[in-house]
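During the no-cost extension, the postdoctoral fellow (Dr. R.K.) reprocessed legacy sequence entries with the updated structure-token encoder. One reprocessed record is reproduced below for audit purposes.
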Amino acid sequence: PTASFARCGPPSVCGQAHRTAPAVRHGQSLMLAKGRTRNARKSGGKVTTTFNLKRSMESAMLAYRSFRPPGSALPEEHRHRCADVYVHAVGSSSFYFVGKVAGCAAEVGASEAVVLQKRVILEHAKLLQPVLADAERMGRQLQLWLAPPNSEVRVAQKKQGLSCAATVRVTPELRAAAAAAPLCGFEPEVLDRENPSGFRVALPPDGQPEEGSELQVNFVAPGSAELEEIARRGTVDGKPVVAVGGDL
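Re-encoded structure tokens follow.
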């Protein structure tokens, strides 16, 4: 089957040069979540630190952009260090695209980069897609899934599956090194006029497209007659729609 792709260009390049922070959703900043930024405090004689989302996000974005400057091509020798990241609530068929990771040091591959940044990725995901926060409150586990870098179109076409990061382990030594220096980075997905609801794909629990589910994607420019028809009817010329700039 053929589907229309409700976005002005491939998601992997659309808006990359203009990202400065996670996008605004319904007037609320995704960067500044109240109660998530606090100073170190003493507890039982030990000094503990509370996770600072804003500072962690800024550091992750800076590291990612230092490794992959906006608009630059990804060298083939660095592909194994980079990945697109999705978050999935166990029991749901939806996998939400939440951003991209990069291992900025030779010893850090894409899988390690996801695990080392799990906290900041999941916190961003829950702000980007509140349905994930709701799922977590209901006791459903949130999982991190990976796809090859810049593969959003193939994922939307059901030509590319996802792999779960739940079994990936990193050594204490690597965690310590990552805490001391920016060994990996994260580029968060953002919401804007062309992408108001983000991108999610429906897949079986194993993250692999079902046989025969492939779609041929057509790109649809914002403001076009085709896009208006998508909003009105959910189809174009009677064909199904892959609305990557909106809800699937």
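The first helix runs from residue 53 to 67. Residues 88 and 95 are 5 Å apart (CA to CA). The remaining legacy entries will be reprocessed before the final report is submitted.
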